[in-house]
Specification:
Elements (H helix, E strand, L loop, with lengths): L1 H26 L48 H80 L2
C-alpha cells in the first residue's frame, strides 16, 4: 500500500512539474522546439546538455545573459535513476579500463611467446639440418669404408 502512495505522490510531483513547465512555456515568447530557441537578441541559442546533479543553471550566453532550460525539471526519482545509471557507467568505464590493461598485458605476453616460438622453430630447423648432415656424413663414411674394404681386397688378392 505504501508503494501506491509513493507512486501516486511521485506522479503528482511529475504532473505538477509538467504543469508549471507548460504554463511557463506558454507565458514566454520563446520558440521551444529543440534547436530553435532564440535569445532576447533573436539569436538561435545553442542547445546544451547538463548532466550535473546540481540544479544550478549553466553559464548563459555572453551577449544578453539568456538562459532557459529546454526540458522540464526532473523528478526526484528520475534524478535517482540517472545518478544510479551514471554510477553504473563509471563502474563499467573502470572495468573497461582494467580489461584494456589486461588485454595489453596479454598482447605483450603473446608477443614474447611468439618470439620464443620463432626461436624454437629456428633451433628445430637447425637440428633438422644437423640430422640431415649427420645422415649425409654417415653415408659418406660408409662409402669410404666400402671403398677401403674394396681396396684392401684388391691389394691382398
Amino acid at each position: 500500500m505504501s508503494t501506491s502512495k509513493s507512486s501516486s505522490a511521485s506522479n503528482a510531483s511529475v504532473n505538477n512539474s509538467l504543469k508549471s513547465y507548460k504554463s511557463y512555456r506558454n507565458a514566454s515568447s520563446v520558440d521551444y522546439r529543440y534547436g530553435n530557441m532564440k535569445c532576447k537578441c533573436d539569436i538561435v541559442s545553442p542547445l546544451q546538455e547538463a548532466w550535473k546533479e546540481t540544479t544550478q543553471d549553466p553559464d548563459p550566453m555572453k551577449k544578453c545573459n539568456f538562459f532557459l532550460w529546454a526540458d522540464p525539471p526532473y523528478t526526484d526519482r528520475a534524478r535517482e535513476v540517472i545518478h544510479g545509471l551514471k554510477e553504473k557507467l563509471k563502474m563499467k568505464d573502470v572495468e573497461v579500463q582494467k580489461l584494456k590493461e589486461e588485454l595489453s598485458f596479454v598482447e605483450r605476453k603473446m608477443l614474447v611467446i611468439d618470439e620464443e616460438r620463432v626461436t624454437i622453430k629456428k633451433k628445430m630447423d637447425e637440428a633438422a639440418a644437423m640430422v640431415k648432415e649427420k645422415a649425409h656424413l654417415r653415408t659418406k663414411k660408409m662409402l669410404c669404408f666400402i671403398i677401403l674394404v674394396c681396396c684392401v681386397l684388391i691389394l691382398f688378392k
